[in-house]
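[Meeting: bench + compute handoff]

Bench side (C.D.) handed over the final construct sequence. Compute side (W.E.) agreed to return the predicted structure before the next meeting so the bench team could plan truncations. Sequence as handed over:
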Amino acid sequence: MAKKGSGQKPLKKVLKENKKAKKKEKQKERHGHGFGFYFLIFFLLLIFLGGGGVLFSIYFCDVKNVECDGTEIYSDEEIKGFILDDEYSTNAVYVYLKNLIMPVENVPFIAKFNVTLKNLHTVSIEAVEKRFLGYIPSEKYGYVYYDDDGNVYEVSQSLLGGSVRVEGLVPKKPQIGSALNVGKSNRRTLLAIQRGLKSEDLSVSVISFTEDGTILLTYGDIMINLGTRANISDKIKRLPYVMPYIEGKRGTLHLEEWTQENTDIVFDEEK
């Protein structure tokens, strides 16, 4: 028997402490087992729901209708061909997810396609067209389209209406996204003209750069002679005051001699 002061705990006290320790270990084990059990249930539930969703989409989300909008450049059938381009494209959910993860790119004149699901059987395709400021015809490259920053936006053999035609400039090695390579001075002048016309709410169909440095604008049946680059922005600002008087007529409007000191503007009307 242990004596008092020997440093040993009474047997009864040791047994009690061991019992408490075992109880705590069991509680920890139950807690650990409980967490693992619930995690397993949650994981299996996710698999079940995910698998069920996949099976549902495969068997109940076939494409029955395709709605196309946003462009007159391509027909509805051509737009469908860009988006529904593989053997799995008969499934609406697949079409939506594919174009969400890997959108169709590099389609001439199209900035992007917005593909959405209107319902489980209907896919909606919106084609967002690129916006052009004008184009330059080229014997070598076809038509070089540029944006309002003066960068090449598209190079194509196809001609689109509705944008300004630029004559007398020769683009060199046009690359999409790069600055229009027609000479820095010509590029600056071209953009200044078009920005000025836009500011004055005037639209022309052709901008011509002639070999002698003269710049001509075609406005309906009226030829506007701006002369050289000198004072070109001020000359354009004068147009809104003049055009209402000659609207619908045929002839040439002369601004080539216009300056701040010489403000005479002559219109040679053709009968």
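W.E. noted at the follow-up: Residues 1-6, 48-56 have pLDDT under 50 and may be disordered. C.D. will use this when planning the next construct.
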